[in-house]
Design a protein that fits this description.
5-stranded mixed β-barrel; conserved putative lor/sdh protein from methanococcus maripaludis s2 fold; rod-shaped; alpha+beta; 6-stranded antiparallel barrel; Elongation Factor Tu (Ef-tu), domain 3; 26% helix; Helix Hairpins
């Protein structure tokens, strides 16, 4: 009985072994027949050295050199409008004439009373010389004349206020005031703005104040005119830092001869600081940022990469590597190799590379997620990632 069980157990084990060998051969056949992964398609660019101008960037607002909402100081009925909306006017130009008939009549009455007081004073002076009246009477006459002349001046000022003039030269806005309309003191008539030149006000952190001086060049971009830079100079730095934000206000003056910039517009300002520098530059999409460092993939001929790997292996083992040809043939395939780099400043879509890369090396700019060391690649630059030092993204 025991012998028979051993024979059966041996048969089962033999059957299992045969099935395992068959399954292994089948898997090996399937693996051999499976298609091998082909080269990965990526985009690439050459690492080039570019000239960079160090800049301080901020957002701000356009403001008029002079700007005011023209209002009436006194109440009155509008007799005439002497301007058109959007018109350029000079300082002192008449904008609105209010009805001043009653005020002018009152002025004429006061002028007549002042003339009478002057006549009385002149006559009393003659009588005083003849010792017919006292000095006190002459003094009263003189005081009465001064009082009446002051009333004349006061009424003349009231009449003048009925003529509303431009306080300075500039461009008028759009008015909603019409002839026959009654204006109360403080009612807005029209806005008046001096916009050539024009200011841009922006804020910078206090830690960047060391690089600010008057006269620095400022470049301003605005959504109203995409791609067009307006250049000016820093003309004022605020005398105090905002205690809430620890930012300092900076004011730059820009030429605006075409009246393109208007007060209230949003602006991106860049202040040039220091001297120009040269950096090895890549698109930011080429960099993979990791907790252990920043990496990129460089593209090299496969033969060159293999020769370098053999040399590195031989150096590690202490042996001398046999010399191999460095030149690659025309049909040599390309592979991607991952290397560490040290990044520096950024400018728009670009980043400066401080260490780890040489000028002229070919670097992968998109498709890195499909790569590892020595992965074969094919370069397709039909679509390139953004690489603009001054991008102006637009919503469509």
């Amino acid at each position: 009985m025991t012998k028979r069980m051993l024979i059966m157990l041996g048969g089962v084990l033999l059957l299992v072994a045969l099935l395992g060998i068959g399954f292994f051969l089948h898997i090996r056949t399937l693996m051999a027949a499976a298609p091998k992964p082909g080269p990965q398609t990526v985009s690439a660019t050459l690492a080039t050295t570019l000239e960079w101008q160090p800049q301080l960037a901020a957002v701000g607002s356009i403001a008029a050199v002079r700007g005011v909402d023209v209002t009436s100081e006194i109440a009155g009925l509008v007799r005439s409008i002497e301007f058109k909306s959007g018109q350029e006017v000079k300082a002192g130009a008449v904008l609105v004439q209010l009805n001043a008939d009653s005020d002018i009549a009152q002025l004429q009455s006061l002028q007549a009373a002042a003339e009478l007081s002057a006549s009385v004073l002149a006559r009393d002076k003659l009588q005083f010389e003849a010792q017919a009246i006292s000095q006190a009477q002459v003094d009263n006459d003189a005081a009465d004349l001064k009082s009446r002349r002051a009333l004349v001046a006061q009424q003349a000022a009231t009449v003048a206020k009925k003529t509303i003039r431009a306080p300075f030269s500039g461009k008028l806005g759009i008015t909603t005031v019409n002839p026959g309309q009654y204006l109360n003191p403080g009612d807005k008539i029209v806005t008046l703005q001096t916009i050539d030149p024009i200011y841009v006000d922006f804020y910078l952190p206090q830690k960047q104040m060391g690089g600010l001086v008057l006269g620095q060049t400022v470049s301003v971009l605005t959504d109203g005119f995409p791609g067009q830079a307006f250049v000016g100079k820093v003309t004022a730095i605020n005398a105090k830092v905002d205690t809430a934000t620890r930012n300092v206000q900076v004011e730059a003056t820009l030429a605006n001869p075409k009246r393109q910039l208007l007060p209230g517009m949003f602006a991106n300002a860049s202040v040039d600081v220091g001297e120009k520098k040269r950096y090895l530059t890549l698109p930011q999409t080429a960099i993979t940022y990791n907790p252990y460092g920043s990496t990129i993939f460089v593209i090299r001929p496969k033969s060159e990469a293999d020769a370098e790997a053999k040399a590195a292996s031989a150096a590690a083992s202490g042996a001398t590597a046999a010399p191999s040809p460095a030149a690659s043939g025309a049909g040599d395939s390309l592979v991607a190799q991952q290397i560490f780099v040290v990044t520096g400043e950024t400018r728009g879509d670009q980043v400066a590379i401080l260490k780890g890369l040489k000028e002229g090396q070919q670097v992968v700019t998109s498709g890195q997620v499909k790569l590892k060391n020595n992965t074969p690649v094919v370069i397709d630059n039909s679509v390139q990632p953004a690489n603009n030092p001054n991008p102006t993204p637009q919503e469509h």
